[in-house]
Specification:
Helix content is about 30%, strand content about 20%. The chain has 3 helices and 5 strands, in the order H-E-E-E-H-E-E-H. Helix 2 crosses helix 3 (about 125-140).
Amino acid sequence: MTAYDPNNIFAKILRGEMPCHKVYEDEKTICFMDIMPRTDGHALVLPKAPSRNILDIAPEDLAAVMATVQKVARAAMRAFNAEGVTVQQFNESAGGQMVFHTHVHVLPRHSGVALKPHGSGMADPEVLKAHAARLKAALDGA
């Protein structure tokens, strides 16, 4: 497995070098909107500690990420009136990973509505801002 690259886009976001539409943050994790959403409300949950993916993340960081994923998934269901939620995590290129910092996708779902392809086009920043506000409000009300 290739070593962790501290210059990946998510590492830059964590250092404040790149912007994001942040939804939630605690001591060990951060959640922000995916700029190439597969559905409305598509959010990402990351550990703050550097790790490439699930193959090298420290168990305590993985536990923190999953606790945040659960919190965000519950809020996403409320914020987007979803009927379900898809949680995805990809590892290495062959596994579909595109950014090599551990992250989990949280996607609110509605019956009969297909997901856009992984890595499809970038969303309008104003739409992402509005979705972040909805998700954040649902988290704050939890």
